[in-house]
Design a protein that fits this description.
The chain is an alpha+beta fold. The protein has two domains: 5-103 and 277-321, no CATH class; 114-248, Gcn5-related N-acetyltransferase (GNAT) (Aminopeptidase), CATH 3.40.630. 31% of the residues lie in helices and 29% in strands. It has helices spanning 68-78, 116-123, 126-137, 149-159, 177-184, 231-245, 260-267, 284-292, 304-321; strands at 22-28, 31-40, 43-48, 54-57, 85-89, 103-112, 141-145, 164-165, 168-169, 191-198, 201-210, 215-222, 250-255, 271-281.
């Protein structure tokens, strides 16, 4: 049995001195959006959704919700219109459920790191090692760099190489140097930049964030014209080395999947790791939404065969259109 947030009395001030909700500009899915946020217990929660509103930590990859019961009380008590659902998860490597709330599983791509040498000798196949060695022989140089104008120009050139990547429109295509610099400079305080260079020109890069418990690849992108140099493999190798040197025992490459990117992750030593995500209803609407499966959005309601068919159709459409 889990605690029912709806049974707890709600302390509500009908005329608070000020509305605690404010708007914050954030980069989401490649574009700047206005997020409605509220600060609770010293942490920032983003409020998303229209019909069903969900509250979640704004930077949940980098922050933990240690006291969800207190967060429930604050969210229900401080807002005129509280969110319908509180969503939070446990960051790896802590993946055993700690809290007595209903949860679902999220599957992440996680690479355990004991040392760079052990990753090189035991976690990757000979094919990947040979690709990295060949890239070095061909003159590829991979190194940690600063987020300066030279790096941003390289990013911009790679972003604008193609409007389509992995069978769908690419978020960052068409952005100017100034836009790229402005949008990505907000994160450099917690990120290490890694560039892959061929004859002095950047043909790939990684933005490696330090999330405390693990390293997180917030951007991994390579030039389509230089796929034969395997820059992405070499960049992951450098990211593993950077994590090992900083004492980060895991490298996370966002979510696992069943596409070609998942196969690349597997070849580089990543493995699927499940972590619990909790959905706590704060209103009766939230409870109904969870019961009906609406808390995950309409895409999650589609059967897997339907989603696969839609993805194939999208890839064919972009292939025929030449975009």
């Amino acid at each position: 049995m889990f605690p029912d947030p709806l049974s707890a009395p709600r302390s509500f001030d009908p005329a608070p001195a000020r509305d605690p909700v404010y708007v914050k500009r954030r980069l989401v899915d490649g574009r700047l959006v206005d997020l409605r946020c509220v600060d609770v217990l010293g942490k920032t929660f983003a409020l998303r959704g229209r019909f069903v509103r969900t509250a979640a930590l704004e930077d949940e990859w980098f922050d933990d919700l240690e006291d969800p019961e207190a967060a429930v009380r604050e969210l229900r008590g401080r807002l005129r219109r509280p969110p319908d659902i509180l969503s939070f998860w446990q960051r790896p490597p802590e993946v055993e459920p700690r809290f007595p709330y209903p949860h679902e599983w999220e599957e992440l791509a996680v690479l355990p790191i004991e040392s760079y040498e052990r990753w090189w000798t035991t976690r990757i196949k000979a094919r990947v090692r040979n690709q990295i060695r060949k890239a070095e022989r061909d003159g590829l140089v991979v190194r940690e760099v600063d987020f300066d104008d030279h790096f941003v120009r390289g990013m911009t050139a790679i972003f604008n190489e193609s409007p389509v990547r992995q069978g769908r429109p690419f978020w960052h295509y068409g952005k100017s140097f100034e836009t790229v610099r402005e949008q990505f400079s907000a994160f450099v305080h917690r990120e290490t930049m890694i560039g892959a260079y061929l004859d002095g020109r950047m043909i790939g890069f990684v933005m490696l964030a330090n999330a405390g418990r693990f390293g997180l690849t917030t951007q991994v992108l390579s030039s389509l014209a230089h796929r034969d140099k395997a820059p992405s493999n070499a960049l992951i190798a450098k990211a593993v080395e950077a994590c090992a040197s900083r004492g980060l025992r895991h490298l996370v490459y966002f979510h696992w999947g069943d596409d070609s990117l998942a196969e690349f992750k597997r070849r580089c030593g990543f493995e699927p790791v499940r972590t619990p995500r909790y959905f706590v209803p704060l209103t009766r609407k939230g409870r109904l939404a969870i019961a009906c499966g609406l808390h995950r959005g309409w895409k999650a309601l589609l059967p897997a065969p339907v989603k696969d068919a839609l993805k194939r159709a999208r890839r064919r459409w972009y292939a025929r259109s030449g975009r």
